[in-house]
Amino acid sequence: MAGQRFARQIALPEIGLAGQNRIRAAKALIVGMGGLGCPAAQYLASGGFGGLVLNDFDRIDETNLPRQILFGPDDVGVLKVDAACRRLKALNPELNVETLSQRLDERALRAAVAGADMVLDCTDNFATRLAVNAACVSEGVPLISGAAVRFEGQIMVFVDPRQGPCYQCIYDDEDEWLGNCQGNGVLAPVPGVIGSLMAVEALRLASGAGSGLDGGLLLWDGSAGQWQRVRLSRNPDCPICGGR
Fold this sequence. Notes:
Rossmann fold, 18% strand, eight-stranded mixed β-sheet, alpha/beta
């Protein structure tokens, strides 16, 4: 039954049955169940991931609905992780979903990261992004980081953040490149594009196919219809990974 369901993925030479079985055994931590987290989680569930840990302490607001595609009008006021859990389990009954509906302190965040095979940073809070990156470097867990605002988005992948570079090599505490969508606005499908790409990278990593974006930054300008790829280098003065 499962083999038939995932036949189109198994048919890919880079995946195969062994890769699909690895996906089924994989567990991802998704931090932030907003415009990025919703499509990423949906595709990981439908793609056969065995386990997801959803972390978000926000409740659903009506303004979330255009881009946070797991939620509907009846979910307004409900915790995002609770509504997402129900939808994801309906999508894939074999999926194991854990929810963390509180803001994680450093110790709790590192424990959650250590218990996952990879982390998807889907937040729009710069301080949280830095904290997630530090935890991934500390625990040696792959990090997939996405961001979206206005008509623009980006994705970065760090398969082995202990080998560098890491997220803080690029952005430091005083260099937040991207405001949140509440203050700047965002076209509804833009987070969907980036969240879907994050799911692609997560499925590739889980299957053993590897990431084509490791150590790179992919930028998308939706208003111009242009993509740009930048190769990242470790910052020797990075306070998180520079001394390793």
